[in-house]
Amino acid sequence: MGVTRVDANRTLALSRVNLLLGRVFSVAAPIIAFQMLSNGIAQNSNHDLNQFWFWLNWVSLAASYTWMAASIWILGDAVIAYRAIVLVSIFSLSTWALQLGDEILRPGEQPWIWWGVGIAGVAAIGGFSAPVTGVILLLLPAIWFAIQVSDVGAPVDPWLAFQDATFTFLFSSVVVAFVAVMKYEAAKVDTANHAAGLAAIELAKADAIVRERDRVDALVHDSVLTTLLLAANASSTDEEKEAELLAKAAIAKLQSANTAVASDETISISSLFTALEFAVHRQSAEVSVDVENSSDFEIPGEVAAAVTESTLQALANSLHHAGRAAKRQVLLRGTKGGIKIVVKDNGKGFRPSRIPKNRLGLKLSIIGRMKSVDGRVFIDSKIGVGTNVVIEWGAK
């Protein structure tokens, strides 16, 4: 059965770093923006600026910074808002001449939009790819340099204009480089966690094979021993024939056992739970794991892989969204002919109906993954109370 897989816990650390950096930016950037917008109001009062162009740019910048802060704290994702800050800043710089008109600035007086040039360069890394960010980091200081040495307002000495543009470039570049390094290191952590999850699945398979081999060895040993004892003690033709039949049966068991051992299509529930407990603690040592009714009941390998990936993804979601103070628990329960796993926390909670379509961690990696092996997923989450993700397969 073809399944589109989204790897569990593949972007957990990176998402945390993005969220942390976004919240820092959402506090620092509005402070600078407030100073910029305040200077804009003062400059508009001191000079006869074109009211249409001034208010168009002032309102656009205020809206983009407000949108950014709200997106980070409410939605946790502000890519579009970052892009808006960059594009509106470039637009404001490009239309400065239209704002100023024939007015002349006083010596040493900067256009009010100067305060947003550096912070717009920092916003670029949140909204664009690395190559585009590099172009923006060069473009913003270049536009600023052109404004200062032009005849708009009051021409500035080219050397001083160059120093201003260089400062803007260095400020933005240093911050962007710091952010890029943090994202790179977070991505390395995610890769290691992903490898640990795959290793847990392989551990479950290997453990199942060992258990199956031990079971087969015991079975064959008992069959062969019984046959040998019966053959050694045979004292009549009927007993000899019975010993012959038992010998053929033992050979058949041995052949079928070789086939079973060669195939890793089934895994016992106890093996799966052992591997899952190991994987959960690798993902977070603070998560408690409770095992109940572990048994040697065999389940298909594809089901074991789906259950493992879904459980780890549910835990990754909890670690990412529930909050640092939340307590988390994973319940592993064997049922009659099936399994039931509950990943629960007492964190922030959410409304499942409001999950964005581009968030694949829940809809594809958990619900879709279990559905592909005829499993079931139930989600019970309440804002401020917590979340329970129930994963079931087989008989209840």
Query: Radius of gyration over alpha carbons?
Result: 33 Å
The share of residues in helices is 55-70%
> pLDDT average, as an integer?
78
In order across it, which strands form the biggest sheet?
2-4-5-7-6
In total, the number of domains comes to: 3
- Tally of contiguous helical segments: 11
Description:
The two termini are 24 Å apart. Strand 6 and strand 7 form a beta hairpin. The model is unreliable at 1-9 and 258-263 (pLDDT under 50). Helix content is 66%, strand content 11%. The protein has three domains: 12-190, no CATH class; 224-262; 266-394, Heat Shock Protein 90 (2-Layer Sandwich). The protein is an alpha+beta fold. The strands form two sheets. A five-stranded mixed β-sheet has the order 2-4-5-7-6, with helices on one face. Strands 1-3 form a two-stranded antiparallel ribbon.
Short description:
The protein has 396 residues and is of the alpha+beta class.
Protein topology:
Elements: H1 12-46, H2 51-75, H3 79-94, H4 96-100, H5 117-127, H6 130-149, H7 158-232, H8 237-262, E1 266-268, H9 269-283, E2 288-292, E3 298-300, H10 301-321, E4 328-335, E5 338-345, H11 360-371, E6 376-382, E7 386-394
Parallel strand pairs: 2-4
Antiparallel strand pairs: 1-3, 4-5, 5-7, 6-7
Tags for this model:
Heat Shock Protein 90; 5-stranded mixed beta sheet; disordered N terminus; two-stranded antiparallel ribbon; 11 helices; 396 residues; 3 domains; alpha+beta; single chain
